[in-house]
Amino acid sequence: MKIFSESHKTVFVVDHCPYMAESCRQHVEFDMLVKNRTQGIIPLAPISKSLWTCSVESSMEYCRIMYDIFPFKKLVNFIVSDSGAHVLNSWTQEDQNLQELMAALAAVGPPNPRADPECCSILHGLVAAVETLCKITEYQHEARTLLMENAERVGNRGRIICITNAKSDSHVRMLEDCVQETIHEHNKLAANSDHLMQIQKCELVLIHTYPVGEDSLVSDRTKKEVSRGHGRREQHANTSANYDVELLHHKDAHVDFLKSGDNHLSGSSREGSFKETITLKWCTPRTNNIELHYCTGAYRISPVDVNSRPSSCLTNFLLNDPRYKIDGSLEIPLERAKDQLEKHTRYWPMIISQTTIFNMQAVVPLASVIVKESLTEEDVLNCQKTIYNLVDMERKNDPLTLFLHLYFRDEQYRIMWNELETLVRAHINNSEKHQRVLECLMACRSKPPEEEERKKRGRKREDKEDKSEKAVKDYEQEKSWQDSERLKGILERGKEELAEAEIIKDSPDSPEPPNKKPLVEMDETPPVEKSKGPVSLLSLWSNRINTANSRKHQEFAGRLNSVNNRAELYQHLKEENGMETTENGKASRQ
């Protein structure tokens, strides 16, 4: 069975009858005595609180302590009883705070001392308290929902704290009988309802209030005392003052002390108290094992007298000094590191040659901030600028990386845009600003139809240019091959002519061949002047063809009749003038 303890539901029933407006007769000094008071000034008279004020203060202190130590699953409901029952809050977690309760009590106001006491009764509040205990809380509803068919296994227990002025012991027994009968009746109603729960156990606490000095007509009961801890506050650099601060904490803290086996813990039973008190020393850690204890547990605490100076000093010191302040929302570094690693590796190419955007310096501003948990307006603006810069690069047809040199430019940018979209989509669930970056990216990727048509025409033009360049290269290669074949045929014919000339020269009847300079063999071709740059194969073949062709034109007549490569010029003029030429080239008169 899912058992909820009695402390899960606590109903305060405060008597609002005219009797509660009387003074408690416990005086409080309003005008404190000071040394430098001027002579002749009469001090203000002391004041005293009403029984209603004391009841409200005590109930508020109970709520403060419980909210400090048990912030969840310990709920309080307030009911004010006079001529009727006035429920001030509900079981919801939103109503469980001191501000809501104090505002509701202030709206009720103090009791009217001139009201008719016969019309007021605490029974109205007790009946309403039992009815409130039958209502289901959020935690009980959650437990019943989890058990589904076994919802009846969820227990319902509670506590009623009634602050009133009892007339006698018989009056107290009458109140107890009234509560018991009311529980029996409401359990019958809850058995046939899905919105109510039967009460398995109810703890009734009656607090009898009466002014100081009067005799109580109700017999006294057992008194209980809470644990107390000692504290030490550093006042100055070299001095300190010891003081005692009474603290309340969970009872499991004592169990942990006993389990730790620490023999230095001081336990004492004070005035027959059923609980032991533990002395906690708040001091500078020393090497003394008696004063230095290791941590056995962490529990929430609350001072008994929150407004006293020692409690205020200790509370402020714990809350303001960062060396002793424990952050309740402390994150585990290992989990945070795993979280960050998962976010940064949602898109993570294993090889650098498999990615485009991580090889581009222009994408770094976007890739470095998109992995963040949340983006600022400046980060979003930088991401948008990066996207616009990439669009401008695509418009200018700028090259991207060396890894995509085998693709056309538009294909390179298509790969880049796809990869960038994959990176941004991996982080769009981080925040709304990540979604804005993706929307900007998708808007820039969607080009108008005329832009796509222009890209297609540009691609076709590039294909035609490549084909024309290839055709020119093929033509040049074919032409050079034809020239080389023609040169080879010319050289072969030249060799055949030389061979025939040698045969004719060797025969005895052959006439004297003219003084003709033989053709130069290809091996005797003068070397081509070295150029500064590399010489192509076509140039070499062109030079050889030109050399061979120059040897085939008609020889100069003067060179054919020359002696020692010297030819006499203007011989016809000399013949007309009666000059004769000799073999050595010198002329003589006849």
UniProtKB/TrEMBL annotation:
GO annotation terms (biological process): cell division; centrosome localization; regulation of mitotic cell cycle
Major localisation: cytoplasm
DNA-binding as UniProt keyword: no
Cellular compartment(s): Cytoplasm; Nucleus
A GO cellular component entry from the record: cytoplasm
Biased composition (Basic and acidic residues): 499-520
Swiss-Prot/TrEMBL keywords: Cell cycle, Cell division, Cytoplasm, Mitosis, Nucleus
Superkingdom of the organism of origin: Eukaryota
Region Disordered: start-end pairs: 448-479, 499-534
Sequence similarity: Belongs to the Integrator subunit 13 family.
Annotated PANTHER family: INTEGRATOR COMPLEX SUBUNIT 13, SARCOMA ANTIGEN NY-SAR-95-RELATED
Name of the molecule in the record: Integrator complex subunit 13
